[in-house]
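Comment thread on ticket #2218

A.B. wrote:
> Attaching the input chain for the structure job we discussed in standup.
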Amino acid sequence: MNQRDPEGQLLPVRIDTTSNGEFEPKPLESHSLAANELAQQWAGENARRTGTSRRAFMISLAGAASTLLAFNHMNALAGKTGGSFELPREAALEEAAAAETLGGKEFIFDIQGHYVNPEGDWVRKLPPGRRPLQFNNPCIVDAPKDSLDYLQCLRADEFIKDVFLDSDTDMMVLSFVPSSRDAEPLTIEEADQTRRIIDAMEGDHRLMLHGRVNPNQPGDLEDMERLASAFPIAAWKTYTQWGPDGQGFFMTDDAGEALIARARALGVRNIAIHKGLSFGPKSYQHSLCSDIGAAARRHPDINFIIYHAGYDVNVKEEAFTPGRGKSAGIDVLCQSLIDNKVPRNANVYAELGSTWRFLMRDPDQAAHLLGKLIRYCGENNVLWGTDSIWYGSPQDQIQAFRAFQISAEFQQRYAYPALSRELKAKIFGLNATKPYGVSAKEVLLRAGADKVSTRKRDYLEQPDPSFTTYGPKTRAEFLHLRRRQGGEFS
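C.D. wrote:
> Ran it. Output below, let me know if you need it in another format.
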């Protein structure tokens, strides 16, 4: 039994305040708090009805279905009509009924994963006042408030377990957080070591790497050639709002153009750009997607992969009217594509890391966001990402997306598409195969026989998921994490 949750009190689908460290945790609204309470109540009742322990019920598909149905109930009472988790009521008690929706066999390619090295140089260089707080999670019990012990929850072996054993993820891109060159929580060398661990398990097709580059930071542009020659870089990861002096850049100004030119020259034409999830008021304009349409029009041979899809947790997502959209959030991306005549399914891709996870709490906003991205970026250009392991195993995000459906009302009113199994399969992984240049068929063929899959089959005989989230959950934890990343965010 998992010692971090011995009584099965943690829900298998988490709606909580956890952040990825790039936005301040937001308190839950009353309907979400009530939904969590109801889910806990139903878990106890349904465990008794099925004759299982609470912990055993929680790790079953019926436990996940029971939780999602509790969320539906409270969302409906709160007047949320934009979408819901479509599950039959019997799924809360019958494993086979739950499996019809939650046990899919899609190819899942998560293009945004993270972990940190708890023994890295960046930790030793931290002054005491900048040491991370022990975030409020049960991975480490009774750790002192200034302890670094919680970082053990974010190390490579926990990453492998959470992603490849406790979830249905087939393939992942390992990404990076913004930082100064001498204070990286994960270096490219350390990330490559994890790739090699998985390679040694015959899983060389499972993990791809980003190369972190901020062209407004001295040394980063020059280092791109070393990264491209020494490591299998699948895309460049950049943060347009970040800078060593707190000043960001646009993809259309000199720094952005220099990055694009270097990417083209080195033959790695995927640029993954953090947009949305702003770091604060300083250089806020650089977190917006207003530059993306123009950059994509200028450089049709470059794939612009918009991480977080430009979503801002402080902006309520609603219906979009061209020419009259909001000045922040997803509407800015949609309007930029329209203004620059960038067609659907072209060279702008919208990624869902942290965005889908945050909006699992609000089906109306989730429906608007997905509907708008599919309409304006294209059904082939919305990409799956989870930002795990900040949120623990991505399995709950996968299960919630499998079950989610935009309501008939919103489909009719706003011309949003139904989320068919075929469309979800595209978003889950098939869409990302084009920019990342992989064959889903080849990946799945090799995945079925590698040592990772063998280890997973053995593990699933007695699965032990933790349902733990690792990112900051309070404003204090968030600010403490920010202070040690080397740039300015306020």
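A.B. wrote:
> Thanks. Noting for the ticket: The CA atoms of residues 161 and 362 lie 29 Å apart.
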